Amino acid sequence: MTENKSQVIKNDPWFGSYASRAEGMRASEIRALFAVASRPEVVSLAGGMPYLDYLPFDELSELVAKMLREQGTKAWQYGSAQGDPHLRERILDIIRLEHITDAQADDVVITNGSQSGLDLITRIMCNPGDVIIAEDPNYVGALGVFRSFQTEVVNAHMDADGLIPQSFEEAIKTSIAQGKHVKFLYTVPNFHNPAGVTMSVERRPQILEIARKYHVLVVEDNPYGLLSFEDKTYPALRSYDADNVVYLSSFSKIIAPGMRVAWMIAPPGIRQKLVLGNESAILCPPNMSQMTISTYLDNFDWKQQIKEYRGMYKSRCDAMDDALHTYMPYCQWNKPRGGFYMWVKIPDGLDAKAMLPRAVTARVAYVSGTAFYDNGQGADHMRLSFCYPTEDEIREGIRRLSTVVDDELST
Ligand code: PMP
Q1: Chain mean position to CA 362
Q2: Spatial contact of 204 and 197, defined as CB atoms under 8 Å apart
Q3: CB neighbours (10 Å) of residue 86?
Q4: What residues does the Aminotransferase class I/classII large domain cover (predicted)?
Q5: From the CA of 223, how far away is ligand 1's center (Å)?
């Protein structure tokens, strides 16, 4: 593991006093890039920021002001640790789109973004040294959480159809043979961040069967599931199995990440612990944000808006795919069927992490594949996001990137 020396505060009087769990904490490569990538002259293909301009800001602001006048005492007050009952009801309409038809509002727990949900599930399930099986590459924010609880992440491999069942089973067996406790599988089945791939419908029951066989919980993290580029959504793993799956999704990518409102659906025992976890970590999710989200859901055609986002993200994905074919045909990638990301293999011998400063000088930013591993792997990949820049900016960004890669190849 590489220590980022720039993060060490000189002469820190508390050096030596920190809990061992804090030692593993470090800034993600993405956060470190944020300031650079936000400069106006840089085309950022780095972040996973949703494009918000389709939101009906003016009308929504008026409706939120009305909501605050009428229900201010609730919005400004503490609320339920499980989350606002009205919003939990509304969420049932959303998850039905992913074939989850048997959940009740009482099965839903609201969290401060899915990030907080990942923290909660790890907090209640894992002791230091416990194993979490995760896809390779892995969502960087989840890796940070797993590290902070001193768990061991064991990688299982993916191909173009997502997580490979045999690799998942192998990872369980090897860990058990070493006397370790395998607590859960962490998977992003739809439009994976960063790999862009989607678990095939055939594989979903196979993965669940293996998990049940070894009594391993499945944590299904699904913030992108509704952002499909096809005319269908994939059935959530939770739709097959209510007892063995904890499902997470979020309003961050379909409405607005600034609200920090997401949800989990969990079987009763786990749900109870999640609510207690919420209580001890934050007392309750913010009423103000939850009621703002409900105001939007109650007054606007949110399904239509998601449809528009899907069309827009698809066009941006197409633009990136075209530009890669035009300017960097020597790279390899799978064209995603939804979501925000392309996972691009660069030519042998190049190092995406080492190349990044030169890319920034050429006014384009991406995330090096190394951010998505805990062991230094990934330098042969870049994660390119097509969610925020316009189609023209994406084409220009890829053109700039190709000049950097071409230079590297010719030296
Ligand atoms: N899981 C995945 C796979 C993500 O990509 C993200 C956001 N980038 C999150 C969880 C966290 O989302 P939220 O904004 O709801 O905390």
Answers
A1: 28
A2: no
A3: 14
A4: 59-401
A5: 6
Nearest atom in ligand 1 to the alpha carbon of residue 117 is 16
Whether the predicted pLDDT of 4 surpasses 50? no
Full-model pTM: 0.95
The answer to whether the peptide bond before residue 194 is cis (omega within 30 degrees of 0) is: yes
Residue nearest to atom 12 of ligand 1 (CA): 114
Sign for the CA dihedral angle at 266, 221, 21, 131 comes to positive
- Close Cβ partners of 308 (under 8 Å, ≥ 6 residues apart): 54
Distance 106 CA to ligand 1 centre (A): 23
Measuring CA to CA, how many Å separate 220 from each of 189, 225, 379? 7, 11, 27
Of all helices (H) and strands (E), which one includes residue 320?
A: helix 302-327
Phi and psi angles of residue 364, each rounded to the nearest 5 degrees, phi first:
-150, 140
Residues 6+ apart with CB under 8 A from 183: 125, 126, 130, 131, 132, 151, 216, 217
pLDDT band at 2 (very low <50, low <70, confident <90, very high): very low
Nearest to 401 by CA among 330, 349, 299, 348: 330
Please give the Cα distance from 126 to 111 (Å, whole number): 19
Our answer on whether the CB atom of 48 is closer than 6 Å to any ligand 1 atom is yes
Q: What is the ipTM of this complex?
A: 0.99
Closest residue by Cα to atom 5, ligand 1, is 193
- Rounded CA-CA distance 13/207 in Å is 49
50 CA to centre of ligand 1 in angstroms: 11
The answer to whether 265 and 92 are in contact (CB under 8 A) is no
From CA 322, how far away is CA 188, in angstroms rounded? 26
Q: What are phi and psi of 110, to 5 degrees?
A: -85, 140
Q: What are 302-343's pLDDT values in tens digits?
A: 999 999 999 999 999 999 999 999 999 999 999 999 999 999
